[in-house]
Amino acid sequence: MFDKDFIFGAATAAYQIEGSIDADFKCESIWDRFTKKKENIIDGSDGSVVCDSYRKYKDDVAILHDLGVDAYRFSIAWTRVINEHNEPNLNGINYYVNLCKELINNNIRPIVTLYHWDMPQFLDDLGGFLNDDIVNYFEKYTDIVTKSLNGLVKDYITINEPQCIMFMGHDACMFAPGTKYNDKEMLKAIHNLLKCHGVATKVIRKNVPNSTVGFAPCSRPLVPSYNDKLLEEKCYDKYFTLDRSFEYSNSVSIYSDPIFLGDYPKNYYTDFKDVLPEITKEDLELISQPIDYIYQNIYSGNYYSLDKNSNLVKNDFYAGYPTGNIDWLQVVPQALYYGPKYLYQRYKKPIIISENGFCNVDFISLDGKVHDPQRIDYVNRYLAELEKISKEVPIKGYLYWSLFDNFEWNSGLSKRFGLVYIDYSNGNRIKKDSFYEYKKIIKNRGL
User: Fold this and answer.
1) At what angle do helices 433-443 and 53-67 cross, to 10 degrees?
2) Stretch 241-251: mean pLDDT
3) Average pLDDT estimate for 343-365
4) Sign of CA dihedral 235, 241, 246, 251
5) How many other C-beta atoms are found inside a 10 Å radius of the C-beta of residue 227?
6) Is 355 annotated as catalytic?
7) What pLDDT, on a 0 to 100 scale, did the predictor assign at position 249?
8) Which of 195, 281, 366, 370 is surrounded by the fewest CB atoms within 10 Å?
9) How much is the pTM?
10) Rounded to an integer, what distance in angstroms lies between the CA atom of residue 218 and that of residue 241?
11) CATH of domain 7-443
């Protein structure tokens, strides 16, 4: 059982559920532009309708209320609250004000993510995170949001999954904006992104009394395949070892060390010495503004063992290993034990799992319901590991991804993570078996 103050919640992101991409003077985002090239999205879909949550937010909050969550994590669409002239758009602002009021009226705590990948296209045209002025744009955007939601929202996440922003958007180029960066450009963009986090933290502290602030990277923890102290130590070291790759599985420290420890990893300055951006003392002080939580998105992990020479060896997943309906999601429940253990050991802050969930092959059965036993099994296995580590380190919450089936980025509408099934032919919402299982878990405050 988790503590009575443990936060159970669910999470979504604006572009993935809201739809109404042209409503109320919303300006174009990089994902609006990226999805216009149908070859960029597996099924050729886009975010124009999806869950239609921009119009159905009261229905969504009613579903959250039925689920019994303590908190709802959602993101603000930067493109709704400012226009192409970088001025406030009251129509978009009022949507989020009304959403927050509806949540509060239902005793649900809003947790707001400022940036979940939907940069205004006009800012990307100006260089995006390569443009040093992006920090000023993000500062103004944060100021608008926090002043507009003052008295409604105290909990903020500045940026979601920087690894995906940079690697998927600017290396693999499978996500928007799909602009390839070389190493020098990548490091400059990462540094500016971290400065955006820092300046947003300062603005939140100034505008929102008693606020909490976090930053939500993702990671794929290394899990020892057997109980061995040396193996665990090597897994910990590897988890935080930076190499010359920007993929999320080996870039934890390039984002989290400057925030929590005040500087980049030592080998950053040697391994990247030929392509380093300008880094000042003032930059590092800005980036390392004190924050309250280690938010972390964890879905899977990898098993490791030691060879005869005590070298770390990654274990292959065998044919038939339990895997979600998306190629990267192997079922590794111990990732929710070792990930938090490693993170707390290094950064010494309370932890909230800001995303964890399962992509399943879901469909409406003959009885009109959606049966998803694999997702139920996944949630129970992972929460058992989280409860186990909560006895060793301060675990403060768990936010299931996602409340709804939604637009799963370059996979479009073809992948389903939701507790609630969305029938994209008519917009109907059907609560899956996993919805009722999670509801029971929340009511019992654990397994």
Assistant:
1) 50
2) 76
3) 98
4) positive
5) 7
6) yes
7) 60
8) 366
9) 0.98
10) 15
11) 3.20.20.80
